[in-house]
Design goal:
Length: 174
């Protein structure tokens, strides 16, 4: 049986360009399980009259950004991601910009992958669902300024140092 850990590993593997993966992986049970999860999620959302999915991430200034996809493209987006400019990381909360090692401007392309284990139908917005997103580079590696990855890493670090005290973490934007 496929576990959430396996699904996470699969999602990360899929983020690296599928063109570089061995054919046996593309045809293997792990790949099929990930694509089946995406298909089941799309079918479930369609049954709830969802037609669009908002995929969000929080930038380095704490601003929530969003990319929306039609439900019909959810499986494709789960596999290939949504194009996101790295320029979002250069803007501060007052719209001024800053450049740094990982916030260099509009050169390049990041991929935003919806977390299909966290998809939520929005009761107050008929026809819409929401999913948090993880940002990765074209090589499939997590972007160094991805807030969800930072939160997961810090929770794991604290859990290791404190023991099983931390149960969850969240990002709150006002």
């Amino acid at each position: 049986p496929t576990t959430d850990l396996t699904a996470t590993v699969v999602a990360r593997a899929l983020r690296s360009s599928l063109r570089t993966l061995p054919t046996r992986f593309l045809e293997g049970p792990i790949y099929r399980a990930a694509m089946e999860r995406a298909r089941r999620t799309a079918v479930s959302l369609a049954a709830q009259a969802v037609t669009g999915v908002a995929v969000t991430w929080v930038d380095t200034s704490g601003v929530t950004r969003v990319k929306c996809v039609p439900l019909a493209r959810l499986e494709h987006v789960a596999q290939w991601g949504i194009g996101v400019s790295p320029s979002f990381d250069t803007f501060l909360v007052d719209d001024s910009s800053v450049h740094g090692r990982f916030a260099g401007g509009a050169v390049g392309d990041l991929r935003l992958y919806p977390d299909l284990t966290r998809v939520t139908v929005l009761a107050a917005q008929p026809g819409w669902a929401w999913a948090p997103g993880d940002r990765c580079g074209q090589d499939g590696r997590t972007h160094p300024q991805d807030a969800r990855t930072l939160a997961r890493r810090e929770v794991a670090r604290l859990a290791e140092s404190l023991g099983p005290v931390i149960r969850r973490a969240c990002t709150i934007n006002e």
